[in-house]
Amino acid sequence: MQIIRLEIILAFALAAKSWLADFAIPLAPTYNRILLMTSSLQPPVSVPRRQFRLWRFFSLFALVLLIVAAAAVGWLYTIARSPLPDLDGAIPVSGISAPVSVSRDSHGVPTIEAATLDDLFFAQGYITAQDRLFQMDLLRRAAAGELSEIVGDVALQHDRQQRILGIRATAAKGLLAATPEDREQFAAYARGVNAYIRSNRDRLPLEFRALHYSPRPWTETDSLMIAYQMVETLSTNPIAALSREQVLAKLGPELTADLYVNNSWRDHPPTAVSPALGLPPDQPASPAPRSGTPADSAAFRAPAELSAMLSPWLAPFLREQPVALGSNDWVVSGVHTVSGKPLLSNDMHLGHQMPNLWYEAHLRSADFDVAGVTLPGYPYVIVGHNRRVAWGFTNVGPAIEDAFIETFNAQRQYQTPDGWKQPDIRQEVIHVKGKPDVVINVEITRHGPIVTDLAPGETRKIALRWTLYDGIRNPFFHVDSAQNWDQFRRAFSEFDAPGQNVVYADVDGNIGYQATGKVPIRAAGDGSLPVDGSDNAHEWTSYVPFDKLPNVFNPPSGIIATANGRITPDGYPYSISVQWEAPWRTDRIYRVLGSGKKFAPSDMLALETDIYSELDRVVADKFVYAIDHAKNASQRSHQAANILRQWNGQMDANSPAPTIASKARDELRRMLLAAKLGTYPLQGGPASWTTYHWMMETVWLENVLTQQPARWLPPAYSSYDDLLASAMDEALKKAPADSNSWNWGPENSVTIQNPILGRIPVVRRWTGPGEQPQSGSGYTVKAAGRDYGPSERFTADLSNLDSSTLNTVTGQSGNFLSPYYMDQWQAWYTGYTFALPFSKSAVEDATAHRLILEPK
After folding, report:
1. Which residue has better confidence, 325 or 668?
2. Which of 158, 315, 439, 794 is deepest in the core (most CB within 10 A)?
3. Peptide bond preceding 355: is omega within 30 degrees of 0, i.e. cis?
4. Whole-angstrom Cα distance, residue 767 to residue 14?
5. Mean pLDDT of the chain
6. Is the dihedral of CA 614, 619, 623, 629 positive or negative?
7. Residue 55: beta bridge partners?
């Protein structure tokens, strides 16, 4: 994508504005005095008249340049500011039946009050578009596979993926199946977005001008596509089944079972009796998430610069590594709090983008009164609280996609139990900016679309069976309206995907937990391996009944927490997931909440920003012991061991110990896997030891370190001590000469930048935080990676809802000159938060701007 003239002019304008303010403009009075002098005085006898005239000419020329530059800066700055929305006064709007009040607080968070629900959702669409229109358009284009139309073929592979998956076609079917109430509310939201677009065509966000296009009208299908995109983002996908198949063929069942472990002694299923928080049993199996910074998947490669900027929208569905996302949520009863009423906290870990994903809002119409985070382009509040109940989410990660191997004949028919059938064909036309259209024909079998093209190295016809294709319902209006546990569960019984762990609290002091989502029951198998599609041996027969999904109400412990780990207790009759997240975060949360302390809301924030890594502390101890006992450990390894010996397990940005532990662990993983899987391509698939990725892979690694089985010791080493010492030596090859300066922050930095304006060298200093060092890791409660982390931090205080807190990553606005564009960044980055006013009096006291939408 080329940088067009507007971007260059804008860069010049901002640079010139700064220069004029700092230097040029203060000189203008001097030039005025010079002109006055030269108009009235004769040149000194010693100065030739011609030289004097040149001096006067250049003075006049410099002044003219200053005037022109000042005018240009003023004009261009006005253009840059023109997308900023009106926050005060009244705006006449067609499409509402009565005035709607919009009160914004000092962080730009709106409280929208309307006489009717139709007006409320209309206004939600309008107000969200005021702040996030370009992001909304990018989200729907990313879901539909229409990015190439505006950015060129850098996004073509992503668009091919989305067209093959059929997100737009599936959303269109979902709209037809929606209830009349849902369609009415989606339509009201769309009317609000379109009212804003129509009245602001001449002052669209700069990104539209930079890319030379204007947004088309919003539709109800667009809102559904954004929801479906979230399902896609949070799905585990079937690439793990294909990889596991290759590993099984190479290693056999015993070693494969070691690698694909799916439980741990650290697990805390919410419905099980809380385990004693002590030492591991005789056969330990320790857990954790994937390694620090996820590598790029081979399933999609795009030119580096723009691809990196668009990474939140270009993530491959059939990715090799587990998605580097997660979340924490927990709730404690009044027994554990200072107030005697529950506290509920939630921070959802998602990919970073600029502006941040969530948009805070408070929606109020009569008894419908709910506040929290909303998804731009989609009505309702997704996570938050109403007058009586609060809730939060983490991803379950259920096995809801299966890879069916279809058998095709020469006539391009596929085999079924009833004979050969012709697949349906869906033609997709991808418009590519500056290039001819790309036409693809998607084959669709009884199981779903053929997705072989999305799995590099795969030659078989792989059909994707996915719960999304069975249709998903929209429960959020009823979730936002729920007044008690029974109504809350009834609402979530219609939440089909993405499957979520939902924690609950209410003002009466009750707490609860409910797993949600459609989880298939299979005739055979569990979704962990690809299966034959020509018969019915592995068909989905039904879904796990909602009442049978794990749930608990007012557990005796008074503590419920989930962090994507295993939620099914021993003996649970159904298979929900074959790949839980490792429970390092879950275990840490339970240990802190079970400490016996009485908690206040500030303690919840402290836990959300906790950077202790039990995984790395355990691994560090193993390396220290091994280096102390190895035969030929190097001097540098001994120095590194001494650093680790004194470490407290905090993944602090200014400490070298986290870097040493993490890098040594990565090298150990590589050496163990390479000894078994080799460094050459596996038959029929991608390469070697890099094939293995598993959410609980550190459970396998801790098992190896703890049990030291002979079957995993590489032949080149006589003991595990020597192996670990060698792994440390390999890690230290990447270290500076002084290992004490190998600080963690730069190794685990976070980068957040505007995908379009962030490409302009001068402007980018105003359009995002850029790259910043950070504490934490993928294994700490504060989950922190290069391109993902907490997307919001929320705590609901059920003793006083006005004491609840919420902050997002950067801010409310998507317009980079808005005061609300990055005003929340320092809070997110350094670990403080903001009050979320809720009562009428608190909202009134917090109001900084008031806008009235008036019927036109």
Report:
1. 668
2. 794
3. yes
4. 12
5. 89
6. positive
7. none
d(CA 546, CA 576): 12
- Its pTM stands at 0.89
Which run of H or of E encompasses 606? helix 601-608
Instruction: Give the pair of three-digit tokens for residue 797.
Output: 């205080």
Asked if residue 494 lies in contact with residue 484, where contact means CB atoms within 8 angstroms, the answer is no
- Taking the C-alpha atoms of residue 156 and residue 177, their distance in angstroms, rounded to an integer, is 31
pLDDT, tens digit, 9 for 90 and up, residues 354-373 = 999 999 999 999 999 999 99
Ramachandran assignment for 390, one of left (phi > 0), alpha (psi -120 to 50 degrees), beta (any other): beta
Query: How many whole angstroms separate alpha carbon 387 and alpha carbon 463?
Result: 46
Answer whether 797's CB lies under 8 Å from 339's CB.
yes
Residue whose entry in the numeric block shows the structure tokens 């592995």 = 538
In angstroms, rounded to a whole number, what is the distance separating the alpha carbons of residues 651 and 630?
27
More confident residue, 41 or 674: 674
What values do phi and psi take at 775, rounded to 5? -85, 170
C-alpha 209: how far from its chain's center?
Answer: 27
Range of weakest confidence among 293-297, 307-311, 674-678, 825-829: 293-297
Please tell me the distance from the alpha carbon of residue 832 to that of residue 823, in angstroms, as a whole number: 12
Q: Which CA distances in Å does 118 have to 123, 125, 382, 524, 770?
A: 9, 11, 18, 47, 40
- Secondary structure class of 532 (helix, strand, coil): strand
* 580 within 8 A of 564, measured Cβ to Cβ: yes
Q: With 0-12 CB in 10 A as exposed, 13-18 as middle and 19+ as buried, what is 304?
A: exposed
Contacts of 740 (CB under 8 A, 6+ apart): 643, 656
Give kind and range of the element (H or E) at residue 442: strand 435-444
Output Rg (C-alpha) for the chain, integer angstroms: 29
Going by C-alpha positions, the residue among 306, 212, 80 that lies closest to residue 763 is 80
Q: Which of 590, 647, 651, 655 is nearest to 620 (CA)?
A: 647
Cis peptide before 498 (omega within 30 of 0): yes
- CA 779 from centre of chain: 16
With beta carbons less than 8 A apart as the criterion, state whether 504 and 798 touch. no
Q: 643 is written with which tokens?
A: 């650093």
Q: d(Cα 298, Cα 316) in Å, to the nearest integer?
A: 9
- Collect all residues with Cβ–Cβ distance below 8 Å to 819 and sequence separation of at least 6: 108, 813
How far is the C-alpha of 241 from the C-alpha of 23, rounded, in Å? 63
Exposure class string for 356-375: b at 16+ Cβ within 10 A, else e: bbbbbbbbbbeeebbbbbbb
Number of Cβ within 10 Å of residue 135's Cβ equals: 26
Q: Which residues pair with 103 in a beta bridge?
A: 111, 850
Please state, as a whole number, how many other Cβ atoms lie within 10 Å of the Cβ of residue 122: 30
Q: Give the 3-state secondary structure of residue 295.
A: coil
CB-based contact 480:387 (threshold 8 Å):
no
Average pLDDT for 623-640: 96
- The enclosing H or E element of 174 equals helix 167-177
Amino acid identity of 605? L
Q: Which residues contact 196 (CB under 8 A, 6 or more apart)?
A: 125, 126, 129, 130, 133
Query: What is the CB neighbour count within 10 angstroms for residue 823?
Result: 18
Q: What is the mean pLDDT of residues 304-324?
A: 56
* Residue that is written with structure tokens 């091994």 in the block: 626
Q: For position 307, what pLDDT does the model report?
A: 53
- CB 100 within 8 Å of CB 850: no
Sequence-separated (6 or more) residues with CB below 8 Å from residue 476: 379, 380, 381, 382
Is there a contact between 485 and 319 (Cβ–Cβ < 8 Å)? Answer: no
Rounded Cα–Cα distance for residues 40 and 825 (Å)? 57
Instruction: At 223, list the tokens.
Output: 């809102």
- Counting Cα atoms < 13 Å in the Cβ hemisphere of 10 gives 28
Dist. CA 307–CA 324, nearest whole Å: 18
Token look-up 């001008």 returns: 209
From 186, 64, 182, select the one nearest 121 (Cα to Cα).
186
